[in-house]
Amino acid sequence: MPVVTTALLDTRGLLCPGPLMEAIRAMRHVDAGQTLVILSDDPGARTDIALWAEKSGNELVSIVEQVGWNEITLRRN
What is the tens place of the pLDDT at every residue in 44-68? Predict the structure, then answer.
C-alpha cells in the first residue's frame, strides 16, 4: 500500500533538538492513520525521531537518505 503524505515539515537548517521538537508539535495536528514527512539535515534527527516514534506509539514508516538531508516519514497511531 503506498504511503500518502498528509503533512510535510521542513526542518532543514535546525539543529538538535529542533527537528524533534518541531516533529512532536506537528504530529499533534496529524490524525490517526495519517502521515508526516519530515525533512532534516541534522544528523541526529534520524535517531531522535525514530526513538521518539517508538516511545510515543507512532510508526516510523521510512528514512530515506537524500544528498545532504533525510526524509523521515511517520504515521500517527
Answer: 999 999 999 999 999 999 999 999 9
- Structure confidence by residue, pLDDT tens digits, 6-26: 899 999 999 999 999 999 999
Span 7-75 CATH architecture: 2-Layer Sandwich (3.30)
Q: Which residues are catalytic?
A: 16
Q: Considering just the CA atoms, what is the radius of gyration of the chain in Å?
A: 11
Helix (H, G, I), strand (E, B) or coil at 1: coil
